[in-house]
Amino acid sequence: MTTLPPEIDVRRGRAKEWFEALQARICATLERLEDEAPEHLYPGEPGRFDMRPWTRETGVGGGIGGHLKGRLFEKAGVHTSAALARFSPEMAATMPGADKDPTYVSASISLIVHPRSPRTPTVHMNTRFLSTAESWFGGGADLTPMIEEQRSQQADDAVLFHAALRDACDAFDPEWWPKYKAWCDEYFYLPHRKETRGVGGIFYDRHNSGDFERDFAFTRAVGEAFLDAYPKIVRHRMSEPWTDADRQEQLVRRGRYVEFNLLYDRGTMFGLKAGGNIETILSSMPPMVAWT
């Protein structure tokens, strides 16, 4: 395996350290919310994360899969990974710099949270560093309310979520928010349904301004924005009662989530083709779902 320049592996190491520290903070926050959930709506013991290290079968590296099945969060996954590996010829043809050398390094965090309550939105976030002969960051975060009255970009949860991500973007470049918000709306779209998956957020890929420190700081800011915004949304919603009709609507909306992740999601396809951990890649699937 060809060795990339030493500074690339140093950058991968710094990104890996950040993503793993963020993973620990997010897991602790979700467990704290499990403790706070009102018992009359969420009976039983608060959930705790099961941390499962894994090792790549190809290349070098692996990750830590954090899995939770709780009373407030029906299912949550917060995962990190890092790798030194080689792209297949098929994948190398689609990656900048891989035509010169298919060797790559990567580090990432990815999470999905499926709350039990239909009143509390599902959320997804991921950020990553990837380097071939070229280096870049990618990722984003998006919110998926389950109830019709909340599925508007003017709804309270969407406004709060978008404001946090906009602040993260605007601290670096005021052009990034409109660009990455529009990219998110375009990306998380189900053509066969002619509808978006949720109310969006931001999505960015192959982000390389030419200044690694600036781009790394931006990626850290996205993680901090998620950690600030989503717990506020959960605390706002978790005490609201729900009906059987709300639950049925939630299960149907989760079906849209499954459709997107299996048909269109780049991260799912990349992980499967790059020899990632199947358990963590498919942990985005909701625990219960319905189609009508």
Question: Would you mind describing this structure in some detail?
Answer:
The structure is a single chain. The chain contains eight helices and nine strands. The chain is of the alpha+beta class and 292 residues long. The chain has a single domain, classed as oxygen-dependent coproporphyrinogen oxidase, CATH 3.40.1500. Strands 1-2-3-4-5-6-9 form a seven-stranded antiparallel sheet. Strands 7-8 form a two-stranded antiparallel ribbon. The longest helix has 31 residues, at 6-36.
Helix content: 40-55%
Globally, the shape reads globular
Number of helices: 8
Q: What is the CA-atom radius of gyration, in angstroms?
A: 19 Å
> Which structural class do you get from the secondary structure elements?
alpha+beta
In N-to-C order, the SSE pattern is HEEEHEEEHHEEEHHHH
Distance between the termini: 50 Å
Beta-strand content:
25-35%
Tell me the domain tally.
1
Q: How many β-strand stretches?
A: 9
Instruction: Compute the average pLDDT.
Output: 93
CATH superfamily: Coproporphyrinogen III oxidase, aerobic
Strand order of the largest sheet: 1-2-3-4-5-6-9
Biggest sheet features: 7 strands, antiparallel
CATH fold description: oxygen-dependent coproporphyrinogen oxidase
Quickly name the level 1 CATH class: Alpha Beta
